[in-house]
Design goal:
The protein is of the alpha+beta class. It has one domain: Alpha-Beta Complex (endopeptidase fold (from Nostoc punctiforme)). The strands form two sheets. It has a six-stranded antiparallel β-sheet, covered by helices on one side. It has a two-stranded antiparallel sheet with strand order 1-2.
């Protein structure tokens, strides 16, 4: 029998009961999504067809994710960066935003992030979903959906965190998968 990959969640500090309940629901959703991934599964393997779409973050937390992501627009790109002061690469931005806004500890690389949550069709994409691209290679870039067809990302060396449309001539053909955390 294959071992299951463990997901870690940060300790929840003292907070109002309603928020703690929402974070608990997120933890259950995240842990159940990770529980189905055997150790050694290729992270860029196509997602198995789902019978239903994952609920994902509760709406208040999804809004917090979007607001924090948008507040970081203009932050310089830095390879390996994961703080507003030091700059961000694309996965560092995602990890920082989800930890800060939703209290979730996500994996650090794009390839690892591509296995988190559940795949959703582009027709059902919503705010706080993660978008993954095959830009320079398989799952080489990622961002956070902020509304219908737009995403926040840390684009490249010399660039800054910005908002772009998924439907542009550059991004549309490179969109690989959308995942709901």
């Amino acid at each position: 029998m294959a071992e299951r990959q463990a997901c870690t969640m940060p300790a929840i500090p003292a907070m109002p009961m309603r928020r703690a309940a929402m974070l608990g629901a997120c933890a259950v959703a995240t842990l159940s999504a990770c529980a189905g991934l055997p150790v050694g599964t290729a992270v860029d393997a196509p997602a198995a067809p789902a019978t239903r779409i994952a609920e994902g973050l509760p709406e208040p937390l999804a809004r917090e994710v979007v607001m924090l992501a948008l507040s970081l627009v203009g932050t310089p790109y830095r390879y390996g960066g994961n703080t507003p002061e030091g700059g961000f690469d694309c996965s560092g931005l995602i990890v920082h935003v989800f930890r800060g806004a939703a209290g979730l500890a996500l994996p650090r690389t794009v390839a690892q992030l591509a296995s988190v949550g559940s795949a959703v069709p582009s027709t059902q994409m919503r705010s706080a979903d993660l978008v993954f691209f095959h830009a320079t290679g398989r799952f080489s870039h990622a961002g956070i959906c902020v509304d219908d067809g737009r995403f926040v990302h840390a684009p490249s060396s010399g660039g800054r965190v910005r908002v772009e449309s998924i439907g542009t001539r550059y991004w549309a053909p490179r969109l690989a998968v959308i995942r709901r955390v």
